[in-house]
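Hi U.,

Before I forget, here's the chain from the pilot set. I'm dumping it here mostly so it's searchable later in email.
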Amino acid sequence: MEEKNYYSVAALIRAVLDHIPPIFDQPNFDSVVSQSKKTFKEIVSRLNELRDPANIHLHSQCSSSVSLAVEHDVDKRSDISMLLSKTIEQLKKIYNFLIRKDQKINNTLKCQQFLFDLYSLQFNNNKA
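Structure:
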């Protein structure tokens, strides 16, 4: 946090929290938290607590009272790292599932093509 871009960090963390739930097949981040195992749940709960301060910094209008973002509010490096690691694991599982599914589809198509070829061959032999 050398540049002290705390508002940017809060906005980025909030964006991550908003975009990750579909990867875990959940409708929102609260659901990701509730479906997580104990240790991971503690980590994602701490990140989820950052949502309200981030919302305040992102959505409040200019006023005479100032709410400053400070390093303590947004320094969640280890938690973000763990969340991103779990997200990458989940994406790998999804990718592997899709590859296996694609292979099954390809095998089915090859089998259908083989059966069609056999049928065509038999049909042509019966014509002759």
